[in-house]
Amino acid sequence: MLFVLSPAKRLDFTEAPAGLPATRHRFGDDLKSLSVTARRQTQAELRRLMGISDDLAKLNQQRFKAFDPESDQGLQAVLAFAGDVYQGLDARSLSAADLAWAQDRLRILSGLYGLLRPLDRIQPYRLEMGTRLKTRRGSSLYDFWGDRISKQLNADAEGHADSTLINLASQEYFGAVDARALKIPVVTCHFREGAKDGGGETRIVSFFAKKARGAMARFAVENRVDRAEGLKDFTTDGYAFDRTGSTDSDWIFTR
């Protein structure tokens, strides 16, 4: 079983715990090509493409200019991302054994790196998957990545007792997974707030849903859940599996 998460806009490059291993990303040629294209963008172009402020555009232009696709420097991805999802995961409090287990099962989608394992080193960057960045492969990052991410997920699922892909990513990022090329079953988890006992409609609250995605990944890691069915026991922060509202491919958890 594999899990996929979205990355985060916020980064925290605080030093990793001593002795924690690190691995190298696996899309070297793609990263090199894409980083060169990003480096050529002016500050104004980055502001327009990303819909960000002048200050953020300047920061990201500096990051792309300093980016070295051949470098082995950086921080493990699961520690570097610091958004709502990663608050729920709280990777820095996981043990080395937990992170080693996650390395074989947890994946992070990335506009720049494609698909990351938890311990893959990354450098500071921001490049949302929905960015309409033109490359030699097309007019968007979806065009750029094509079926590459799906093929890697297929390969990563080989040898697992349960090959199910658990989608804990946003729609923007999971859109980079080519469904036609994906050869493994997918379950998408949804987290909703509201009355569970018929007292009203439940609803998705973005902040809570993001945090719950990370919390579910942590639940799987800590409990060594290696089959999708085991996720139905997820009760962190008061969530419970909604058997009535769920389908075979869309699982709903409410509180």
Structural features, described:
The radius of gyration is 18 Å and the shape is globular. It has 255 residues and is α/β, with parallel strands linked by helices. It is 35% helix and 13% strand. It has a seven-stranded mixed β-sheet, sandwiched between helices. Strands 2-5 form a two-stranded antiparallel sheet. The longest helix has 18 residues, at 206-223. It has helices at 28-39, 43-50, 54-66, 77-80, 84-89, 96-103, 141-145, 148-157, 171-174, 206-223; strands spanning 2-5, 75-76, 106-110, 114-116, 121-122, 165-168, 186-192, 240-241, 250-254. α2 (43-50) crosses α3 (54-66). It contains ten helices and nine strands. A hairpin with an 8-residue loop joins β8 and β9 (250-254). It has one domain (2-15, 76-254).
Write out key terms for the chains shown:
alpha/beta; 7-stranded mixed β-sheet; 255 residues
Indicate the topology.
Elements (H helix, E strand, L loop, with lengths): L1 E4 L22 H12 L3 H8 L3 H13 L8 E2 H4 L3 H6 L6 H8 L2 E5 L3 E3 L4 E2 L18 H5 L2 H10 L7 E4 L2 H4 L11 E7 L13 H18 L16 E2 L8 E5 L1
Parallel strand pairs: 1-3, 1-6, 6-7, 7-9
Antiparallel strand pairs: 2-5, 3-4, 8-9
Helix pairs in contact: 2-3
Write down the overall geometry: globular
The beta-strand count equals: 9
Cα Rg? 18 Å
Query: Structural class of the secondary elements?
Result: alpha/beta
Question: Mean pLDDT score, rounded?
Answer: 96
Count of domains: 1
Helix content: 25-40%
- Topology pattern, helix = H, strand = E: EHHHEHHHEEEHHEHEHEE
Number of helical regions: 10
Distance between the termini: 25 Å
User: Order of strands across the biggest sheet?
Assistant: 4-3-1-6-7-9-8
